[in-house]
Amino acid sequence: MQRLSDAPGGDRLVGALNATRERVDELQKRVRGLEDLEKRLSALERKVDKLAKSSTSVGSSSRASSKTTTTKSSGGSRTKKS
After folding, report:
1. Model confidence over 26-69: pLDDT tens digits?
2. Does residue 70 come out as left (phi exceeding 0), alpha (psi in the -120 to 50 range) or beta?
3. What pLDDT is recorded for position 8?
């Protein structure tokens, strides 16, 4: 490494290698964070599946009593021009 840094343009190469190492370290940290999120997502998906299965066994009476939501229209209509 010492010889490389003494060569012409070597200091730029060493700087680029150090910057690359720092980027790789940062990416590794982010990937570890994504792995944790994937685990949490899997756990939540299992809970949702479990709740969905238990709600279908209750019957259609629970569906009839569920709330419905409506969205407000802006009042204007738009037509596409070609």
Report:
1. 999 998 889 899 999 999 999 999 999 988 876 555 455 555 55
2. beta
3. 78
| DSSP symbols for 39-57 | HHHHHHHHHHHHHHHHHHH
Runs of H (alpha helix) within 59-80:
61-64
Token couple for 24: 């790789």
How does residue 2 score in pLDDT terms, banded at 50, 70 and 90?
low
Residue burial 13-51, b: 16+ Cβ < 10 Å; e: rest: eeeeeeeeeeeeeeeeeeeeeeeeeeeeeeeeeeeeeee
Chain-centroid distance of CA 10 in Å reads 39
Between these two residues, 53 and 4, which has the higher pLDDT value?
53
Q: Determine if residue 59 is left, alpha or beta; phi over 0 gives left, psi from -120 to 50 gives alpha, anything else beta.
A: left
